[in-house]
Design brief:
By secondary structure, this protein is an alpha+beta fold. It folds into two domains: about 150 residues, Beta-Lactamase (2-Layer Sandwich); about 80 residues, Arc Repressor Mutant, subunit A (Orthogonal Bundle), CATH 1.10.10. The protein has eleven helices and four strands; from the N terminus they run ααβααβααββααααα. It has a four-stranded antiparallel beta sheet with strand order 1-4-3-2, sandwiched between helices. A hairpin with a 2-residue loop joins strand 3 and strand 4. The longest helix is centred in the middle third of the chain and has 22 residues. It is elongated. The C terminus is likely disordered.
């Protein structure tokens, strides 16, 4: 089971965009938990509640009615139904048999809750437990980290552009520009701290620099020059 979780971490670290996380990675998450239904939702993409919204949807998104959602929003923490409710009570709140057991986890960025993962099992299947919750917390941590990297201004194609760097080296340079340590970069890219350090040594030699600050200054300067030339042409 642990190796499958590690494989999932690696897949998250290699995801290229939100679409891949929502369409491919989340399927792997659902399969990992032997779930009946699963989803990755972002708060800014939730449907607007109005008079035409189905009642069940209104109730599901109501903090007053849905104690699981209320716990997630208030604490930014993962939770499953039997963690805060007596066994069987959730099924009276949500009568759908395919939502008989539910577990949710937070996606955060810059201390803000930006979305969440929802996992459900059929009421006849095993309820979620502490081990499931621990695994979901770890998955949410990796997803939150990956999304933060994706949304960083220094992660755009126009930044840190240099033909002398490989795609992986460019990723490392982008994270260096954000002020991350070698250990933090290793966690974000799912590689070891030593691998990051060795990569930085190669990058310094390629760029003929002796420090991170000098490297980033040179790369940003090259990026601005390339962007200006592209605009002129």
């Amino acid at each position: 089971m642990e190796s499958s979780l590690q494989t999932l971490f690696g897949a998250i670290a290699q995801a290229q965009d939100e679409a891949e996380l929502k369409q491919s990675i989340i399927v792997k998450v659902g399969e990992y938990f032997h779930a009946n239904r699963w989803g990755l939702k972002f708060l800014d993409q939730l449907p607007t509640i109005n008079d035409d919204t189905p009642l069940m949807m209104k109730l599901a998104l109501s903090l007053d009615y849905n104690p699981i959602l209320r716990y997630l929003v208030k604490r930014h923490a993962a939770v499953h139904d039997e963690m805060i409710l007596p066994p069987g009570v959730w099924q009276t709140i949500c009568p759908r048999p395919d939502h008989g057991h539910v577990m949710v986890g937070p996606i955060v960025s810059n201390s803000q809750l930006v979305g969440g993962i929802g996992i459900t099992r059929h009421r006849d299947d095993r309820a979620f437990n502490t081990e499931d919750l621990t695994d979901l917390c770890a998955i949410c941590l990796h997803l939150s980290t990956r999304l933060t990297v994706m949304h960083s201004p220094s992660n755009t194609s126009s930044c840190l552009k240099c033909d002398r760097l490989t795609p992986r080296e460019t990723e490392i340079a982008q994270l260096v520009a954000q002020g991350l340590t070698s250990a933090e970069i290793g966690t974000a890219l799912w590689i070891t701290e030593n691998t990051v350090k060795q990569a930085l040594k190669r990058m310094f030699r390629k760029l003929k620099v002796s420090s991170r600050a000098e490297m980033i200054a040179q790369l940003f300067m090259n990026s601005k020059l390339l962007t200006t030339e592209d605009e002129v042409s």
